């Protein structure tokens, strides 16, 4: 039995960014095999939202590279 797609109300946004940012978003799209630039932005928003929620709950966002560990400070 196949799942029916969920209908969600959509809103169109017009986003102005520099060429460098557009190029970076497109590179991320290619690296992650995302279907579109919009999908990259949706995924980025989901990650940022999760990090903010965890940070507000007293958690820390850390990046660990071998023995080096750094805290990522989020701007709420």
List keywords for this structure.
extended, two-stranded antiparallel sheet, 76 residues, mainly alpha
Would you kindly provide a written description of the structure presented here, covering whatever features stand out?
This is Ribbon-helix-helix protein CopG domain-containing protein. It comes from Allorhodopirellula heiligendammensis. The chain has helices spanning 19-32, 37-56, and strands spanning 62-65, 68-71. It is mostly helical. It has a domain at 19-71. Strands 1-2 form a two-stranded antiparallel sheet. A hairpin with a 2-residue loop joins strand 1 (62-65) and strand 2 (68-71). Helix 1 (19-32) crosses helix 2 (37-56). The relative contact order is 0.09.
Please render the helix and strand layout as text:
Blueprint: H1 19-32, H2 37-56, E1 62-65, E2 68-71
Antiparallel strand pairs: 1-2
Helix pairs in contact: 1-2
**Low-confidence regions:** none
Strand order of the largest sheet: 1-2
Largest sheet: 2 strands, antiparallel
Q: What distance separates the N and C termini?
A: 43 Å
Average pLDDT, rounded to a whole number, is 91
Protein name: Ribbon-helix-helix protein CopG domain-containing protein
Organism: Allorhodopirellula heiligendammensis
